[in-house]
Amino acid sequence: MFGIFYCQSFVYLRMKNFDAQIVIVRGKKPWYEMLFPFACFCIALLMFWDGVETAMAVEQDRTGILLGWSFAALIFIVLGTVFGMVRDYHFDFKRKRYKIVKRVGSIGFGTWKPFKNVDYVSVFENPDAKFQVNLWYDSNKHFHIDTFANSATAISFAIHIAQQLQIELHNGVDHQCVTDGRSTQEKIQNEKRKIDAYFTEGRRPLWHTLVAGLSFLAAIVIVYASITEFQFGPENIESPLRSLDLVVLLIGVGVKFSMINDYLFDLENNQFRVIHNIGLIRWGKWRNLKSIDYISVFQKKEGLYLVNLWYNTNKHITITGSHKLDAAMEMGGTISKQLHIDLLDASDPHNTKWVELSE
Fold it and tell me: Where are the alpha helices (H) located in the chain, listed in sequence order?
C-alpha cells in the first residue's frame, strides 16, 4: 500500500516538474448526493443479471429477453450517469487553453478550449441560501465549479483553487449578512406587501416535462399495483417493500426534472422570496434584500445571451436567456425599467457599456 502511494506521488511530482503549466482542479460531490446514482447503477446491474438468468432459464427468444432487460437497465445507467457526473477543470497556461472533463468515476470526456486569461475565483451565497464557487475568466465570463451548504467549506475550497491557479479570491460572503439572509427581520402580513417585481425561470424543456411526467406516472402505477395485489400475511410483507426504493427513485427523478423557481421582490420592505414550484405545489420564504444593483446581459457562449439580475453587491439571478442579442437586451431593458435600475451591456466582454433607457 505504501509503495503504491509512493509511486503515485512520484508520478504526480514528475508531472508537476516537467509540465508545471497544467493545473487540474478535480470536482467532487458530497457522499449523500452519490447515493442516488449508486442506487441507479445497482438497480441496472441487478436488472441485467436478472435478464441473463431469465434468458438462461428459457430455450427460445433469449435475444429478445436480453435486449428487453438491457434496455430497462440502460435507463438507470443513464440516470446514474447524469446525477453522478462531476467536473474536473484542466488549465494549460502555456498554451492558453482549458478543458472541462465531465467524469463518472474514472471515466470522463472533454475537449480543450482557448482562453486569454483566468481572472479570479469568487464565492457568494446564492438565492437558495447555499454558497457557490465560480471561476471568472476573459474579463466577465465564468463557470460554476461547486456549491456548498456552509460558508466555511466554500471559502476553504475557493482558497484552494486560488492557490492552485495563483489568482485572486473575491470573497463575497464576509461582506454579507449571511444569517439575516436566511430569515426575515419581522413577520409582514400579505396584505401589507407590494410586489414590485415578479420573475420566473419559465417553462421546462419538453423533454424535461416528459421525463418528470413519466417518472411520476410510473411511481403511481407501482404504488397502485402494490396496494391492489398485496395480500396481508407475514409471508407477503416484503412484496411492497421491494417496490419502495424504486418509487422513491422515480419521485426523485420527477422532482429534479419538474422544479421551477419564481422570484418575488418587495422593495418597500427590502425583501425577496424564492418560490419553488412542482406542479401545483409551491413553497418558499421571504429573505432580506440589502440592495438591487443592476441588470446585465452577457454572452455565456457563442449564440447564447443571459439576462442576470445582480443584488446584494455580488449575488445574481439568471432570469432568462435568448439566442438573439436584441431579444435579450429588450428583456433586460424591460426589467431595468420595472425595477428602476441600470442596464449593463456585457455581450462583448472587451467592450462593456451602460445602456441609456428611453422612458
Answer: 2-18, 35-57, 62-84, 151-165, 178-181, 206-229, 238-256, 325-339
Neighbours of 150 (CB within 10 A): 11
For residue 17, which amino acid is it? N
Nearest Cα to Cα of residue 22 among 79, 98, 107:
98
DSSP 261-274: EEEEEETTTTEEEE
Distances (CA, A) of 57 to 35, 52, 73: 33, 9, 19
pLDDT above 70 covers a percentage of the chain that reads: 82
List phi, psi (to 5°) of 220. Answer: -65, -40
* Phi, psi angle pair for 303, to nearest 5°: 90, 10
Give CA–CA dist 86/4, Å, rounded: 25
pLDDT of residue 185: 45
pLDDT tens per residue across span 28-44 = 777 777 888 888 888 88
Query: Can you spell out the DSSP letters for 149-178?
Result: SSHHHHHHHHHHHHHHHT-EEEE-STTS-H
Q: Determine whether 135 is exposed, middle or buried from the number of CB atoms within 10 Å of its CB (0-12, 13-18, 19+).
A: buried
What parts of the chain have a pLDDT lower than 50? 1-20, 175-185, 230-241
Set of cell numbers at residue 118:
483566468
CA distances from residue 221 to 94, 184, 213 in whole angstroms, order as listed: 57, 41, 12
* pLDDT of the residue at 244: 66
pLDDT for position 88: 86
Burial-class residue 32 by CB neighbours within 10 Å (0-12, 13-18, 19+).
Answer: exposed
Q: Which three cell numbers stand for residue 29?
A: 460531490
The contacts of residue 1 (CB under 8 Å, 6+ apart) are none
Q: How far apart are CA 266 and CA 197, in angstroms?
A: 7
